[in-house]
Amino acid sequence: MSSRRESKPKKSGLSNSKAVNSPSSSTTSSSKQFPEISIDGQSSPASSSARSKLQYIYSDNLHADADRSKENVTVTVRFRPLSPRELRQGEEIAWYADGETIVRNEHNQTTAYAYDRVFGPTTTTRQVYDVAAQHVVSGAMEGINGTIFAYGMTSSGKTHTMHGDQRSPGIIPLAVKDAFSIIQETPSREFLLRVSYLEIYNEVVNDLLNPAGQNLRIREDAQGTFVEGIKEEVVLSPAHALSLIAAGEEHRHVGSTNFNLLSSRSHTIFTLTIESSLYGENSEGEAVNLSQLNLIDLAGSESSKVETTGIRRKEGSYINKSLLTLGTVISKLTDGRATHIPYRDSKLTRLLQSSLSGHGRVSLICTVTPSSSNSEETHNTLKFAHRAKHIEIQAEQNKIIDEKSLIKKYQNEIRALKEELEQLKRGILTIPQLHDIGEDDIILLKQKLEDGQVKLQSRLEQEEEAKAALLSRIQRLTKLILVSTNASQSSRLPQRPGPRRRHSFGEEELAYLPHRRRDMTLDGENVELYVSLKGNAETGCDTLKEEKKARKNGLLNWLKHRTSLKAVDQIDLLREQQKILSGEVALHSSTLKRLSEEAARNPQNEQIQDKMKRISDEIRGKNERIALLEKQIADSIMVSSNMEKSEISQSTVAELVAQLNEKSFELEVKAADNRIIQEQLNRKICECEGLQETVASLKQQLSDALESPNVHSKASYSQQIKMNGLQMDKEVAAPKEISRDLLIKTQVTEIEELKHKVVGLTESKDQLESQNHKLAEESSYAKGLASAAAVELKELSEEVAKLMNKNERLMAELAAAKNPPTQRRTSTVRNGRRESLTKQHDQVGSSSYLKRELAMSKERELSYEAALLEKDQREAELQRKVEESKQREAYLENELANMWVLVAKLKKSNGVDT
Ligand SMILES: Nc1ncnc2c1ncn2[C@@H]1O[C@H](COP(=O)(O)OP(=O)(O)OP(=O)(O)O)[C@@H](O)[C@H]1O
Fold first, then answer.
1. Cα separation, 57 vs 64, whole angstroms
2. Binding residues for ATP, per the UniProt record (predicted)?
3. Span from the CA of 313 to the centroid of ligand 1 (angstroms)
4. Where is the binding site for ATP, in residues?
5. Which element (helix H / strand E) includes 7?
């Protein structure tokens, strides 16, 4: 019937319905773009068929996208099938899944709601997980807080969805398993997982992992709300985490109600805290991703019409009140005008505050029953789910600084311990280089060596002990940090594969036991699939190296090796298995107890009888396995103790003796080395003393030689050296000889150099002298020229004077010729015209002759003046040259004098007889 409803085709009226006419039209991730289509006039269900798919894809691309992105709460609805009781009572279907995203009312077809996904009664929890939870889990593994909770009326299938059972594991075990798969698929990071488990019962917070942790307080800090004093357990495998949940379930308040034989009377919150950091050498200084994955199984709301009494009524009222507050908080969160959100009105909303207020991904799985008798409650759930759809969240990666992160604390501690171990391995004693040490150091070193010999033995022992202690501490810490076994095949970015390998829970979960333990139980072909313990390959422990080597040589050898070396681990493993089984038995026993109480009240109820039988069988089976495990443990202990005894009595003792022999041999070698070094030191000291004496005497000789004026001559110096040499000690003769020769050589080269200098100076002196001579010659020649010029000048001046006189005379004659006396003119006129004309003709001829003469003398005068000027200039130039020559001569003379002074000085300082 239910399947009929699930596959029921859309009714014709629906396609025209104003409600869900295009459920797949909205694929956005923002509520603002999310179309709201009123169906029944009251509510306004939204439609988004492909949204969940979109979000799923989004989660895969998270790395590529920003750390922040706006999303809505993923809201899904899961129908459970009608229960046998409901079927017996002839219940009808009131609500059904219409396609993948619509929930429709059977009796009022226009009343329909759209969600991210609607799951029909035949859907498996795995399918629900893939759509509603996987992206939250993967986000949490990447540092984004995640919350998944199941909401619905009592008996609607919340616990079935969240916890499930052996045949159909719920969201919680699937999430835990997925988290470990992600670790395996992310070799680039290392993880540390912690779990806590609490319940809110009658508004009291109890720690389910710690029975003593009752009525815990909720506190608040910058990061948000937290439960004070809650126990957190580091988990190493899904089996480990699930065994803790099973143990916690033992303490959960469960009771029988009219609707549910095992009704949850409290809300439970299972929190997986995930820390991850980059794996490898570059991890130092990198921020740590810290996130929490809250997996919540709410108690079911109960109809007020249901008659309950006593304790159940009280529980019911607390449950209803907190769920009502949850509804109010969600309404207010989606109402833009609300100023106050009443988170504090219930413990549940207080604890969910950071999730609901938008920091992280949220997935709400509403479980509903299709039965008509619960139609109203189902409708309420659907409306609640619809409201929740509109909460807008902002998923952010939480990056934290070192101090707050446990993983960093452990990593740092491991690093420091490893360094300490390395130091111990290297040993502290480092002998300094001989050439660097002084005399005092030698004595000190000698003393140290003597002391060291005495202390060496005890120190070696201490170091061995410290090494062992550090190794065990490193192993204990690294055991808590989980990395993928693919870490060595380092891939740059975690490539999320398509579908993951799936397997059911049970024996196979042991596969997730850490490397240290699984090696006892698994066959070789599965080895690479499992999460290993970080550091096993890094501890540098010889045992582990051997182990690796053995693994290379074949699994059988490796197992043999492991078995012989790590029998204790096998016992641990068996004990852990026993513990898990005991937890399960305890859980089943309490269920059985409650069922038997129920059976006493309803003796005719066959369902209870069947369940009791099935659980009893399971308990019996598990008890048998526990007994088997106990036997195995006992056997292992026997084998281990025998092995220990025989090993200790034979191989270990032999090994120890061998070690002891080795150490004493080492000691002997070191002592011999020490003796040799001491002898060498003594010899060196003697040599050193001898050399010091030689140096002192040479110094003395040198100072004596410097004081005496003639000692610089090679001969006398050699003589003196020779004389001194004779006085030298025979032991130091050779070095003395070397020093003397050296000294002589130095002096000779110095003298040679000085000689060269003197020759150079003499040459330059000769050059200067010849230059001087030349200049003197030039100077006398210039003087001769000057006097010749002066004579010529004098002659010229005389000639000029003569010419000038002549010129004056001629001028006077010319003037006389130009102006004849009046008397002479009158007589000429009176004595005849012809005589006068002849005279006139003679006078004209004589005047032109004079004019020519005058012009010529003027020209001559001018040329004389020019020659005179030229001579003056030449004379001035010659005089300047004479002056220059004089100056040059004076300068050269001065230089020459300086040189002579220099030569004299050199002669004096070198004592060279030049
Ligand atoms: N999807 C489902 N398929 C098959 N059986 C289911 C499904 N959901 C629930 N059931 C069965 O219905 C019964 C009630 O389920 P469950 O205990 O999970 O309800 P609940 O909502 O947790 O109730 P409560 O709030 O009171 O604890 C159980 O016997 C469970 O096995």
1. 12
2. 152-159
3. 20
4. 152-159
5. none
C-beta of residue 481 within 8 angstroms of C-beta of residue 191 = yes
Range 348-352 contact pairs with CB under 8 angstroms and sequence separation of 24 or more: 348/200, 348/267, 348/298, 348/322, 348/323, 349/322, 349/325, 350/218, 350/225, 351/200, 351/205, 351/218, 351/225, 351/227, 351/269, 352/147, 352/149, 352/294, 352/296, 352/326
In a domain, 135, yes or no: yes
The answer, yes or no, to whether any atom of ligand 1 lies below 6 A from the CB of 31, is no
Match 């975690």 to its residue by tokens: 494
- How many angstroms does the Cα of residue 427 sit away from the middle of ligand 1? 65
Q: Which of 401, 429, 459 is the last residue of a domain?
A: 401
In a domain, 544, yes or no: no
The answer to whether the complex's ipTM is over 0.90 is yes
Condensed to tens digits (0 to 9), the pLDDT of residues 315-360 reads: 888 888 888 888 888 878 777 777 788 899 999 999 988 777 767 8
Question: For residue 229, what is the enclosing H or E element?
Answer: none
pLDDT in tens, 373-422: 889 889 999 998 988 887 766 666 666 655 566 677 777 777 777 777 67
What is the structure's pLDDT at 200?
Answer: 92
Q: Please state the residue numbers annotated as binding site.
A: 152-159
Cα distance between residue 801 and residue 794, in whole Å: 11
Q: How far is the CA of 351 from the centre of ligand 1 (A)?
A: 25
Assigned token pair, 589: 């026993």
At 824-847, the pLDDT tens digits run 444 444 444 444 444 555 555 667
Backbone angles phi, psi at 291, to 5 degrees: -145, 165
Give the end of a domain, one of 345, 372, 401: 401
Q: What is the pLDDT of residues 277-306, one digit of tens each?
A: 887 766 666 778 888 899 999 988 766 555
Question: Does ligand 1 have an atom closer than 6 angstroms to the CB of 154?
Answer: yes
User: Cα(485)–Cα(755) distance, rounded to whole angstroms?
Assistant: 86
Does any ligand 1 atom lie closer than 6 A to the CB of residue 608? no
In a domain, 23, yes or no: no
**Ligand 1 pocket, residue 408 CB under 6 Å:** no
- Check if the beta carbon of residue 119 is closer than 8 Å to that of residue 128: yes
pLDDT digits (tens, 9 = 90+) for 636-674: 777 766 665 555 556 556 666 666 666 666 666 666 666
Among candidates 119, 83, 102, which has minimal Cα distance to 39?
A: 102
Q: Do the domain assignments include residue 722? A: no
Which own/partner contact pairs does 372-376 have at CB distance under 8 Å and 24+ positions apart?
A: 372/91, 372/92, 372/93, 372/94, 372/106, 373/86, 373/89, 373/91, 374/94, 374/153, 374/156, 374/303, 375/94, 375/95, 375/105, 376/303
Place of tokens 């909720």: 218
Asked whether 550 and 558 are in contact (CB, 8 A), the reply is yes
- Give nearest CA residue, ligand 1 atom 3: 80
Q: Where are the alpha helices (DSSP H) in 11-124?
A: 12-16, 51-60, 84-88
**Residue 406 is encoded by which pair of tokens?**
């446990």
Query: pLDDT by residue (tens digit) across 506-523?
Result: 333 433 333 322 233 333
Check if 299 has its Cβ closer than 6 Å to any atom of ligand 1: yes
Is residue 371 lining ligand 1, measured as CB closer than 6 Å? no
Name the nearest CA neighbour of 248 among 583, 619, 622, 623: 583
Average pLDDT value over all residues in the chain: 70
Q: Whose CA is nearest to atom 8 of ligand 1?
A: 157
Q: How many domains does the chain have?
A: 2
**DSSP assignment of 454-475:** HHHHHHHHHHHHHHHHHHHHHH
Range of the domain at 218: 71-94+130-401
Percent of the chain with pLDDT over 70: 59
CATH of the domain at 176: 3.40.850.10
Mutate to test the pocket of ligand 1, among 6, 80, 165, 254 (most ligand atoms within 8 A of CB): 80
Asked if residue 263 has its Cβ within 6 Å of ligand 1, the reply is yes
The CB of 155 under 6 Å from ligand 1? The reply is yes
